[in-house]
Design brief:
Blueprint lengths: L1 E6 L10 H9 L2 E6 L5 H6 L9 E6 L9 H18 L1 E6 L9 H10 L3 E5 L4 H9 L10 E5 H6 L9 E5 L5 H10 L2 E7 L7 E3 L14 E7 L1
Parallel strand pairs: 1-4, 1-5, 2-3, 2-4, 6-7
Antiparallel strand pairs: 7-10, 8-9, 8-10
């Protein structure tokens, strides 16, 4: 049994790697994660891959504390293993790059116990896609860059002052605090919502953004002035 884990990029299907696209076209079985609302990874690939003859299995990952979900992840891994025992080969798709905040890695330890062979196909992350859209580097020469989620960032602001570039993910609930930090410590703020997706929106001035315009898929890049 073999499972491919494929990063499908931030939302633009043309950013899927050639290797990832070939595997997606050939795989008879696809697993896709949801949080109970949107199936974004699936909506990306269906623009370039026919799903007509494929078996699709939804894997629900609830937004709860990690220590409450161990049994749930084990159950999902059992579903994956059971389906693979029939098809022998399958693919788990995820937005961005699998190595960055992908729910797949919660299942990996259980899948390894089942003897499933796994191959990870990298994808373009949201912040790489955003940097390309802006036509600016995240780091040059000896500049230091950090990538984290906004919640972690706000718990220890002083620790981040050494960085020339701060990339913040999951920022939609913390816009006020991020604005205050950028003004106090002289950082320029750039905001990207659903980068690479149909509802993409980019702001080149952090002060022009209102919190009610943002959602879960919003990132902020702070660059030291």
């Amino acid at each position: 049994m073999k499972l491919y884990v494929i990063g499908v990029g931030p939302g633009d299907p043309e950013l899927i790697t050639l290797k990832g696209l070939k595997i997606l076209k050939d795989c008879p079985l696809l697993f896709y994660p949801t949080g109970g609302r949107e199936t974004l990874a699936l909506s990306v690939i269906e623009k370039v891959v026919s799903l007509k003859d494929k078996r699709l299995i939804e894997l629900y990952f609830p937004m709860q504390k990690i220590d409450e979900l161990y049994n749930h992840w084990e159950e999902l891994a059992q579903r994956v293993s059971s389906a693979l025992s029939e098809s022998k080969i399958g693919a788990f798709i995820t937005l961005g790059d699998p190595a960055f905040y992908s729910t797949f890695f919660y299942l990996k330890p259980f899948l390894e116990k089942s003897g499933i062979e796994m191959e990870i196909i990298p994808g373009i992350s949201s912040f790489s896609g955003f940097s390309a859209k802006l036509k600016i580097p995240l780091s040059l020469n000896k500049e230091e860059v950090v990538i984290t989620n906004a919640d972690t960032f706000l718990k220890s602001l002083s620790n981040y002052l050494i960085f020339d570039t701060i990339v913040l993910l999951k920022t939609h609930r913390y816009l006020k605090e991020i604005k205050e930090f950028s003004k106090k410590h002289a950082y320029m703020g750039l905001v990207g919502k659903r980068v690479g997706q149909d509802l993409e929106k980019i702001w080149y001035n952090l002060d022009e953004v209102e919190e009610n315009e943002l959602d879960y898929f919003t990132l902020v890049v702070l660059k030291k002035l």
